[in-house]
Structure to design on (221 residues):
């Protein structure tokens, strides 16, 4: 599963926790970090209201549909304000690495992760869409579909008269397009109806290419 790169936590309990941390940190260092007092006060109020409603929705005796809706709205307002403060006043001096860790923020990664060549193989399955059109579905034939090296797909194809032998070399698939979508469509010329289209897919990751998948075919409607 791809790891989220968003700094803001997705779980409600974690959002409440980070709000409490920020309230304490802003009270101590808000002026030093040059966060306007009105922004700090607004965040304090939003955090207090979210915490109050959080306790109410946690208790079966006090939780109602209205309280739950109010709590959801309060959490949204608090998140919007937190993101606004982070964007305007954080990630800039005079915050230290220790401050960043305290606020549960991540320093920007300036080191590029080396990309590698894909190892999975893909193939094209087709379905009818209309006259002179084929729908395409790219399926991982071998390897993991979740591999981050599977950045996109180079779909190569060629059209031949019905009954002609299948191309034996991938270089004979003279048409191609790149896509990151597994579903797509190809439109053909009216004169191609009744001919055979041969497909093959090569997974790409930048300038790195994976192994070719099997050549498949479909009759053009």
């Amino acid at each position: 599963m791809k790891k989220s790169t968003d700094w803001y936590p997705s779980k409600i309990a974690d959002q409440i926790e980070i709000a409490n941390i920020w309230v304490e940190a802003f009270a101590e260092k808000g002026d030093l970090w040059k966060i306007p007092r009105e922004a700090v006060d607004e965040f304090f109020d939003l955090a207090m209201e979210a915490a109050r409603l959080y306790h109410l929705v946690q208790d079966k005796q006090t939780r109602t549909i209205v309280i739950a809706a109010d709590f959801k709205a309060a959490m949204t307002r608090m998140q919007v304000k937190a993101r606004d403060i982070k964007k305007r006043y954080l990630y800039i001096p005079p915050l230290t690495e220790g401050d960043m860790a305290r606020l549960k923020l991540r320093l920007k990664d300036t080191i590029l992760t080396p990309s590698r060549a894909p190892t999975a193989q893909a193939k094209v399955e087709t379905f009818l869409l209309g006259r002179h059109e084929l729908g395409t579905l790219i399926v991982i034939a071998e390897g993991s579909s979740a591999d981050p090296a599977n950045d996109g797909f180079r779909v190569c194809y060629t059209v031949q008269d019905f009954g002609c032998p299948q191309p034996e070399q991938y270089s004979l698939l003279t048409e191609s397009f790149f896509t990151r979508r597994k579903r797509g469509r190809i439109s053909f010329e009216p004169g191609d109806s009744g001919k055979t289209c041969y497909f093959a897919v090569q997974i790409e990751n930048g300038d790195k290419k994976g192994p070719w998948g099997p050549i498949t075919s479909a009759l053009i409607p």
